[in-house]
Amino acid sequence: MPRGLFTAAAYFGDQGHQQDRRSDINSDLSTQMIAMNTIATQNSVQIAVFKKANEMQNDLLKTLTQAALAPPPPGQGLKVDKQA
Fold it and tell me: Are the C-beta atoms of residues 27 and 21 closer than 8 Å to each other?
């Protein structure tokens, strides 16, 4: 067969070439799986960081709200200072 001439019989009849093609497909598939796992892990980390930041903000608001709503110390607010 002349060099550079492509025929279906030559392409599909070559077992070695089919094996190379399968390994390329398998490596492409494994690369895609690794990429998908990496993306899933990154998303999980982003969600965990977001949840922790939200939890910290809620704790801060809760602390500030408790301090603001606390009753005044004894004796405060009994007299009105009209000079103020």
Answer: no
